[in-house]
Amino acid sequence: MKAQTEKPPEFSYLLPLDSLGAGEKKLTLTAGEDARAALAQRFDLVSLDNLTATLAVRRIPKSPLVRVLGRFSADIVQTCVLTGYPVPAHIEEAVAARFGPEEAEPPEVEFHPDEEDPPEAFTGNAIELGEWLSQCLAVAMDPYPRAQGAELATLTESRESADSDSYRPFESLLANRKRNS
Question: What is the pTM of this model?
Answer without folding.
Answer: 0.77
